[in-house]
Specification:
By secondary structure, the protein is an alpha/beta fold. It has eleven helices and 13 strands. It has a domain of 232 residues: Rossmann fold (3-Layer(aba) Sandwich), CATH 3.40.50.720. The chain is globular and about 55 Å long. Bound molecules: nicotinamide-adenine-dinucleotide (NAD) and UDP-4-deoxy-4-formamido-beta-L-arabinopyranose (WQD).
Length: 340
């Protein structure tokens, strides 16, 4: 298939691009580099042996997006492009709503006009809000979220569902990711957050490599086995494989809307993740326990049965794989991607 990948220079997008090329797809990236470094493109080329074509623009620009679709044929779009920091979305809600919704409107409008039938969308477990109990199932309703970022995912899901149900031949796959971590086993591409990482895994990795003094564990008085929160961490390589499985499934089926969780179905606590990372590095990663972080759920994990039964996809990588691969990436690239 000829696949346009929006946000293909980002963390999950870059891993998915590498797998798409390996699977024989013809891939084109569009990315504004709002949250990516251009040097990732050299790494993608080294891993794939191909200079993946790149369009460098902001897809909220409808004219440029329309022009791209008028100039090249596509069979499918995987839409990763978006802003993703929960905390930042509280400070800049309008920026989040504009970017994360306008990008979808712009893409879907161009896809409809040019008869591109398949859209895979990056949603998030955040749409399960704070009222569902794990394991989270795709049929949980109503979806809702507790941050502007999360609400952009909820709204996007509604928009895409309405458009797919109302338009002949336009199909969407909504993929709800749990907690993506890890890196390509080569250590050449990985998660490279700008500024202080919000997420657990990149924070631990930056402590281990000496960029930060210690991890602060956000609370150890939760009603869990060791008192720290449990999450469903999923290796980014498994996640990327889930996108390819979804793409193949959609191309072969006529169902307008499909929603699949991409998770492992298992919870891992903050302290368990820290121990696994220490094993990967071969020494203790320093930490201190701090207060709870507002908004954190004690435990979240997926029911991954639907993706297993329909897509034949299951996550296969272990927590140790996630830590070993993250450490390979972080130790080879202590400051992340180079600027040039
Ligand atoms: P990322 O920031 O690394 O990648 C997103 C990419 O999109 C970046 O390269 C950025 O430059 C680009 N981009 C942003 N807005 C754009 C625009 N308007 N036009 C063109 N390019 C634009 O993030 P990621 O972790 O790879 O996440 C990819 C998607 O998955 C996002 O939609 C995110 O919300 C979603 N998601 C991520 C996680 C996670 O924890 N990483 C979890 C659930 C869902
Ligand atoms: C995991 C656990 C923290 C940092 C977020 C988004 C979610 C999705 C994935 C996009 C929690 C603890 C963390 C630290 C810590 N993203 N922690 N010290 O909050 O489950 O999910 O990313 O859609 O929408 O909310 O992930 O990695 O931030 O936290 O103790 O310095 O690690 O309290 O228990 P979260 P996370």
């Amino acid at each position: 298939m000829r696949v346009l990948v929006s946000g293909g220079a980002g963390y999950i997008g870059s891993h998915t691009v590498v797998q798409l090329v390996a699977a024989g797809h013809d891939v084109v990236i569009v990315d504004s580099f709002a949250n990516a470094k251009p040097t990732v493109m050299n790494r993608i080329e080294a891993l794939t042996g191909t200079a993946v074509p790149l369009h460098s623009f902001d897809i909220t620009d409808r004219d440029k997006t329309e022009h791209l679709f008028a100039s090249e044929p596509f069979d499918a779009v995987i839409h990763f492009a978006g802003l993703k920091a929960v905390g930042e979305s509280m400070d800049k809600p309008l920026e989040y709503y504009e970017n994360n919704l306008d990008s979808t409107f712009s893409l879907v409008r161009a896809m409809r006009r040019h008869g591109v039938p398949n859209l895979v969308f990056s949603s998030s477990a955040t749409v399960y809000g704070d009222r569902s109990e794990p394991p989270y199932r795709e049929d949980f309703e109503p979806i809702e979220a507790t941050s502007p970022y999360g609400r952009t995912k909820v709204f996007n899901e509604h928009v895409l569902r309405d458009v797919a149900v109302g338009s002949d031949g336009f199909k969407v796959a909504i993929l709800r990711y749990f907690n993506p971590v890890g890196a390509h086993p080569s250590g050449m591409i990985g998660d490279d957050p700008s500024g202080i990482p919000n997420n657990l895994m990149p924070f631990i990795a930056q402590v281990a490599v000496g960029r930060r003094d210690r991890l602060t564990v956000h609370g150890d008085d939760y009603p869990t086995a060791d008192g720290t929160c449990e999450r469903d961490y999923i290796h980014v390589e498994d996640l990327a494989a889930g996108h390819i499985a979804a793409l193949h499934w959609m191309a072969a089926h006529d169902r307008p809307v499909s929603t699949w969780n991409l998770g492992t179905g298992k919870g891992t606590s903050v302290l368990e993740m820290l121990s696994a990372f220490s094993r990967a590095v071969g020494r203790e990663v320093p930490y201190a326990v701090g207060p709870r972080r507002p908004g954190d759920q004690p435990r979240t994990w997926a029911d991954p049965a639907l993706a297993r039964d329909e897509l034949g996809w299951t996550a296969v990588k272990t927590v140790d794989d996630m830590c070993v691969d993250t450490w390979r990436w972080q130790s080879a690239n202590p400051q992340g991607y180079p600027d040039a």
